[in-house]
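Ligand: IPT. Inputs:
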Amino acid sequence: MKAITLYDVALLAGVSYQTVSRVINDAEHVSARTREKVQQAMAELHYVPNRGAQQLAGKRTRTLGLITTDLALHAPSQVASAVKSRAVEQGASVLISMVEHPQQCQAALQELLAQRVEALLVNVPLDDPHAEQLKALAAPVPVLFLDVSPSAQVNSLVFNAGQGASLGAEHLLSLGHRRIALLSGPASSVSARARLAGWKATLAKAGLEAVAVAHGDWSAASGYEKGHQLLSVSPLPDAILVANDQMALGVMRACDEKGMTIPGQISVVGFDDTADSAWFSPPLTTVRQAFRDAGAQSVEWLLAPTQADRCWQVQLPVTLIARHSSAPCVADRADCEDLAQQLRKLALLAEKIARG
Ligand code: IPT
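Predicted complex:
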């Protein structure tokens, strides 16, 4: 079948070729009536504009590229969703490339550049030299990184991992927990390393050390497996800090299988506050990273990047969301009851002495 062209649309709508082109490119100076006539002709002929041809003609594409880590994970998929939503609002489109390993970023970047993206967003955990290398490869196309250390010399928009880690750890300490186990993310992830370091530093300030440390791969399955591992130490931990909510889901299942009630016998604190975490049983206490805001802010920058000599670096704050998976430590409560009983005994004794 012969491909439908702009000329066919123009002929059917009874307008010039240039008018059809102006409608397609959303240009000004087209009356509502003409626009409608052209759109009707396009629909009738099933005409689809050719973006490639538009690009060759030097038009701005308003196409952004997103290189992301595994979208089966809740956090990156929610970031991608937020990016898509804001881009649609701004009349831009987003091409998504998913990589399984950071080493695949370079090929993904080249593929997206070949499709003429105007700017790139990278949500893959990257060490500083790797991020800096990708930035150089993409130049002059601007790149914004979401999962790098603030020390990388690139444009970045990242959540404050240290603040998040200390919020979670301080929350457990304030509830009287002392035997705290840590379930970190993969050692290959910059953010996982930063969260783990933050937890350890906060515990150290309280004169404590973690009773056990394990590393998962962010999935609920790994949370379940490592959760069982952390619950096999003796004496048992009275709380677990988990590097993300998905792993916390698996940890909660492991606690249930061990017959440990959450909260009461053990507290569990996650990280992310992804959309489903309020629906875990019990609802999860966690550290909130506002992914929708981060996605929206990223798109704003990508569509109008700051042209500074220095890097544009933003660190977003995080907040603790206290729900029902954390509560005062039972051991602590037992101690209190003990103390109350001793006080009652003392009072009786004092009464006896007073009576003579
Ligand atoms: C980070 C999430 O906290 C974690 O749950 C996991 O999904 C990870 O991403 C995947 O790389 S968020 C990231 C922007 C630091």
